[in-house]
Amino acid sequence: MREQMATRTREQLRDYLFGTLMPTDRGAWPADEASLFDHGMDSLRLMQMLVYVEETLKVRLPDEEVTPERIESVNSLVEWIDSRR
């Protein structure tokens, strides 16, 4: 069950990040361990992503928990999001 939730979180996050926030052809989407900041993430997009997680995924990610390690990649974001469920 937990693995299914992580898979769903990953899919939703990837769709939002690379389909909406940093539009990229699906075939060129970076790997889940790739640095989001190397692929267009910046502070404004980070804030938009945090709002998306809270409003759409219904998971609160406290500002004081934002660290470079937690926001570096899709993998680290999914791990953080799922730890807050």
Overview of the molecule:
This protein has 85 residues and is an all-alpha fold. The two termini are 13 Å apart. 56% of the residues lie in helices and 0% in strands. Helix 1 packs across helix 2 and helix 1 packs across helix 4. The radius of gyration is 12 Å and the shape is globular. The chain has a single domain, classed as Orthogonal Bundle (Non-ribosomal Peptide Synthetase Peptidyl Carrier Protein, Chain A), CATH 1.10.1200.10. The longest helix is centred in the N-terminal third of the chain and has 20 residues, at 2-21.
Annotation keywords:
Non-ribosomal Peptide Synthetase Peptidyl Carrier Protein, Chain A; 0% strand; mainly alpha; globular; 85 residues
**CATH architectural arrangement:** Orthogonal Bundle
Show unreliable segments: none
Can you count the helices?
4
CATH fold naming? Non-ribosomal Peptide Synthetase Peptidyl Carrier Protein, Chain A
Percentage of residues in helical conformation: 55-70%
According to CATH, what is the class? Mainly Alpha
Strand content: under 5%
Q: Major beta sheet, specifics?
A: none
Number of domains: 1
Mean pLDDT figure: 95
- Beta strands, count: 0
CATH superfamily: ACP-like
Oligomer: single chain
Instruction: Categorize the overall geometry.
Output: globular
